[in-house]
Amino acid sequence: MKKRFEAEHSSSDKLTIERLMGLGGQSARKSHYPELVAKLEELEEERNRYKSIFEHAQHGIFQARLDSGLVAANPALARICGYTDPQQLCRRVESFASGLLFDKDEYPLLLEKLKLYGKLFGYETRLLRQDGSAVDVSLNVLLKDDDQGSLMEAFVADITERKKAQDKLKKLNEELEQRVEDRTRELVSLNQQLVSEINERSSIEQALKVARDAAEQANKSKDKYLAAASHDLLQPLNAARLLVSTLQERELAEENNHLVERIHIALEGAEELLSDLLDIARLDQNAVQPDLTSIPLDYLFRMLQVEFQPVAEQRSVSLRVLSSGLNIRSDTRLLMRVLRNFLSNAFRYTPAGRVVLGARRRGDHLELQVWDTGPGIAEDKLGDIFREFQQIDHQYQTGRKGVGLGLAIVERIAGMLDHPIRVSSTPGKGTMFSVSVPISSEPVQPILQPQQIPQQDLSGRPILVIDNEQDILVSMQALLEQWHCEVCMAIDPAEAIENYLSKGVKPQLILADYHLNNDATGVEAVDQVRRYAGYDIPAAIITADRSPEGRKLFRERQLPVLNKPVKPGKLRALISHLLQPPQQVAESCIDGP
């Protein structure tokens, strides 16, 4: 009986295989058994390959009947759900209704979407583990129909780590928002404290209000905010500087002289800090656009020599300038700012000895160098000197201590101009700062070399001052009268014409603020006064506006400009220059950065 069953079973398997292979009995006999064996081996290899993929897949895989439970699962799914093997999982989850794999409330939603679309990709849900905990997963599910009904096939990815990362990121964002809120609250508190401390006159309060209003619009117009802030905040400083300079030139008691000098030093520190902060902000916001031109190096070095020679003489330090006949390509104003900073630091930290400004050719570049014989900088401190508010304290420091922003500004300017900077120092012997600029082969128009302008006797000279700030007018009047000038003050050109020109006063010079009331400008004011007077009155602009547009306008109109806060020495030199006889007045120079 057994042999008969095996024979029939073998015969049945043979016929089934022949039908699967598309072979009839006659064909099988013709092709003989070796081909059949080969086909069977290929099928077995294919089955084993899919079985290996199924069992060793990194993601979970399962088949399930919608009306019952799991039909098959791979080891990866068992691991995800906390079971030792797939059979244990399948035996336990014989029905989805039991809630042992899907949450009872979640499964109907999954089933509804699957029946609606026939497939789901990236569907995120949670599977229940053997210990009752839940694991976050992402499902790719297909719905198929066979002779036994609807069959669900799914690939399962464990997204627990991704969920943890998302939760961590969310927490970090919340912490960051809290830190920003705390910092904002701190800044608001500091701002209020500053307002209470500075509350000396109503004009300053108005300036802070304008600055605050401008800050609220900063995201829409950074340049406009910075221009308004620089103008409004520098206005009261300018008035104070002029008044203090007036007191310095008067004969006062010794104890009063000391107090005036301390006020002067404090104002200089406030001015430098405010100017540096504004420059840092403008550079960081890309609000400063370089104007690259071909510049004679002799011209730059001569300007610096004229400016710093009095400093050298005051501190008994030798200043030597070694120039070159080459031209360079750079932004005059920004490059001068870099070199001024190098020279200022050299004199500040050199109590005796010499400071050298020179240039060395390096291929197609010139390295502009400033050497000093000061105490030098330790090697481990060289990396800190370009950071904001970082200074190297020296017992040999002379003059007023800086605020630690100068070299940070220098580094930003050098990066914007693509001019590499370098520093080397030997403790006890001195320091060298340098900036590398490209040599220019473009032709350069002849430029009048700067020179020391002798101070003229200003007695009785009528000078018209136009400024919309009453404090500035009072300060300018006090300083100019100290120089024995005849001062005419007006808040706009209409008042100047009505009070002075219409009564026969003939100003020899106009000093006008750039930003006047009702959006009027000092350039327009100069034009109106000149038209009424009927002659070309020499004029200069005094302003806190440092924008490229303003500088371009002043150059086009050939109007010299002094930036606020005004230094009395520069103001008197400019007045002396403009009041020279016409044949001796050369092309006007615009004030540097």
- What proportion strand? 15-25%
Report the oligomer. single chain
Helix content: 40-55%
Overall geometry comes to: elongated
Content-based structural category: alpha/beta
Strand segment tally: 17
Helix tally equals 17
Fold and architecture overview:
Residues 228-441 form the Histidine kinase domain. Residues 121-171 form the PAC domain. It catalyses: ATP + protein L-histidine = ADP + protein N-phospho-L-histidine. Pfam families: HATPase_c (PF02518), HisKA (PF00512), PAS_8 (PF13188), Response_reg (PF00072). This protein is α/β, with parallel strands linked by helices and 593 residues long. The chain has 17 helices and 17 strands. The strands form three sheets. Strands 6, 7, 8, 9, 10, 11 and 12 form a seven-stranded mixed beta sheet that branches. A five-stranded antiparallel beta sheet has the order 2-1-5-4-3, with helices on both faces. Helix 14 (493-499) runs parallel beside helix 15 (522-533). It starts with a helix and ends in a 15-residue tail after the last helix.
Keywords for this structure?
single chain; 593 residues; alpha/beta; 5-stranded antiparallel beta sheet; 17 helices; 49% helix; elongated; disordered N terminus
Summarize the structure.
The protein is an alpha/beta fold and 593 residues long. The chain has helices at 2-21, 25-56, 75-80, 86-92, 106-117, 160-198, 202-216, 222-248, 254-284, 297-314, 332-348, 406-417, 470-482, 493-499, 522-533, 548-556, 568-578, and strands spanning 60-65, 70-73, 119-128, 134-146, 149-158, 293-296, 317-322, 327-330, 353-362, 365-372, 421-426, 430-440, 462-466, 486-490, 509-513, 539-543, 561-563.
